[in-house]
Design brief:
Two copies of one chain form a homodimer.
Chain A (H helix, E strand, L loop, with lengths): L2 E5 L8 H14 L4 E5 L5 H5 L12 H6 L5 H4 E5 L2 E4 L8 H5 L8 H13 L6 E5 L6 H9 L2 E6 L3 H5 L1 H14 L5 E7 L7 H17 L10 E2 L8 H5 L7 H4 L4 H18 L2
Parallel strand pairs in A: 1-5, 1-6, 2-4, 2-5, 6-7, 7-8
Antiparallel strand pairs in A: 3-4
Helix pairs in contact in A: 1-13, 6-7
Bound molecules: adenosine-5'-triphosphate (2 copies) and magnesium ion (2 copies).
One adenosine-5'-triphosphate sits at the interface of chains B and A.
Chain lengths: 273, 273
């Protein structure tokens, strides 16, 4: 089976897309088969990879969610070796209102992924990463209903901690209703400046929060803050302007070292399961 | 009349709240009367100022928008000398669905501010700053319909430029429909790292964009990138965890110098009008 992961945080600009793209690329670089699904109408994951605007009648994630006749295989484009991308365009913004009345409105993506994995058989993707938009709406709910694991990209700032409670509530809700497998596996620290006592304090708060959760019956009881934190590194912000992953842009810069280390840790965990 | 400014950017985590709070505090510190209106259900502006949770039946921005019997005067609390705050709480998240059917749904805040300024007469606020949520929904539309000027806090990153087009479209739409006075006055660069060629390129792109707009009939034809950019400075991120403005937290740090310089520029522009 595949390791299925939603990169989720309703707070904006915290590193979801940067992490989704660079972890997907890191895993692909280790020779693993990876699917990256862009669930954000901003389409930044697609932009980050330099994916061309879908032409003419190329279906996108919008079509996948709204049209039961469209399969995930038709939506996927080969973005890199080992890395297939389901691209998002601005029409995806129409999905939430249009799906609002449907009884299976949060399950569209899950059904599409399950059908795809069945038809792929042994050639199926090993890792499926979903880049969520900065909201707790229907698109994010489709992402959460389709995966087993949530990774929370965030920055070690005081105001960033404020949103985590609400995020956890949403994960609980989806877990209790449509997806009993769903759990939070960890936090990925993005744009991290380890030199300040402020960020060290925020990280310590997060570590303590997860330690205390170990004895509770909650979907984050086995969660932790992943190491390494991804250091703040302007190369990471520059790469998307060239349509490149951090590894293509500057393979040995701190951001690339950190994302590669995280990809290795994520692959290793899965191998040992 | 007052200088009325919405800090707006649908992209999350770009510095809207940090800028709203620290500009408001900077102006108050210059002896000007300032109102700060928190339009974000996250309530971060209120949190940043260390405002207590509103007690019992203290009305908040939610009540102001939904209940015509509630006036802005009843909602305001004196957060600092010269600085009155209209606080937001999570119930404000209910405002968008609840207002959806009302014919004047984008004008609620404007009406409340106009009534307040009329009843205050000569004691009225000189500067009204509105902290918008990271979206282009009904709350932001209330903010845009209530002011003359939009300031766009943003970071000098490639992905940040992608959202500006959509933001400008929304300003145009509000300008053509309910608020012909509305215009974009400027961009405030937040969390700025001037040492990288990437950020210099993004700033150059923005400067060029505004220069070209000068001859166009658009709501940003007199807009510019404000200087100074607010430098990345961990003190700026630490201050809210103590419920303090940057001036209270560390009056001479780079973040405080930059926000004070901006506040002085904003006050001076207004005096010279
Ligand atoms: N390690 C890093 N070093 C420098 N810049 C970074 C780093 N990580 C992310 N950034 C920059 O921070 C900004 C926000 O990142 P990103 O777009 O990945 O966040 P997001 O959570 O996906 O945002 P949204 O909520 O809009 O989807 C981008 O400009 C990105 O390039
Ligand atoms: N100059 C700066 N130096 C360091 N950190 C900063 C600076 N400006 C803002 N930050 C930090 O960046 C984060 C995002 O800022 P802020 O909350 O003001 O953004 P926002 O646009 O209001 O976010 P939202 O979209 O969630 O309302 C906060 O943790 C803040 O403390
Ligand atoms: Mg994103
Ligand atoms: Mg804010």
């Amino acid at each position: 089976p595949a390791r299925t992961i939603a990169l989720m945080n309703q707070k904006g600009g915290v590193g979801k897309t940067t992490t989704a793209v660079n972890l997907a690329a890191g895993l692909a670089g280790l020779g693993r088969r990876v699917l990256l699904i862009d669930l954000d109408p901003q389409g930044h994951a697609s932009l980050h990879l330099g994916a061309k605007e879908p032409e003419g009648d190329q279906p996108t994630v919008y079509d996948l969610l709204l049209d039961p006749g469209v399969s995930l295989a038709e939506v996927l484009v080969q973005a890199r070796p080992n890395l297939a991308l389901a691209a998002a365009t601005t029409d995806l913004a129409g999905a939430e209102p249009e799906l609002a009345g449907a009884p299976d409105k949060t399950l569209r993506l899950r059904r599409a992924i399950e059908a795809y994995q069945r038809e792929q058989g042994p050639r199926a993707a090993e890792f499926i990463l979903i880049d969520c938009p900065p909201s707790l709406g229907l698109l994010t709910l489709n992402g959460l209903s389709a995966v087993r694991e949530v990774f929370i990209p965030m920055q070690a700032h005081f105001l960033a901690l404020q949103g985590v409670g609400k995020l956890m509530q949403t994960v609980s809700l989806v877990g209790r209703t449509v997806n009993p497998h769903l759990h939070v596996t960890g936090v990925i620290l993005c744009n991290h400046d380890a030199s300040t006592s402020h960020s060290r304090e925020v990280v310590a708060d997060l570590d303590a929060f997860f330690t205390e959760a170990r004895t509770q019956n909650v979907p984050w009881s086995k969660a932790r803050v992943y190491r390494p934190a991804v250091r703040r590194n302007v190369k990471v912000a520059e790469a998307p302007s060239f349509g490149q992953t951090i590894f293509e842009y500057d393979k040995w810069c701190p951001g690339a070292l950190d994302y590669r280390a995280l990809a290795e840790a994520i692959a290793k965990e899965w191998d040992e399961v």
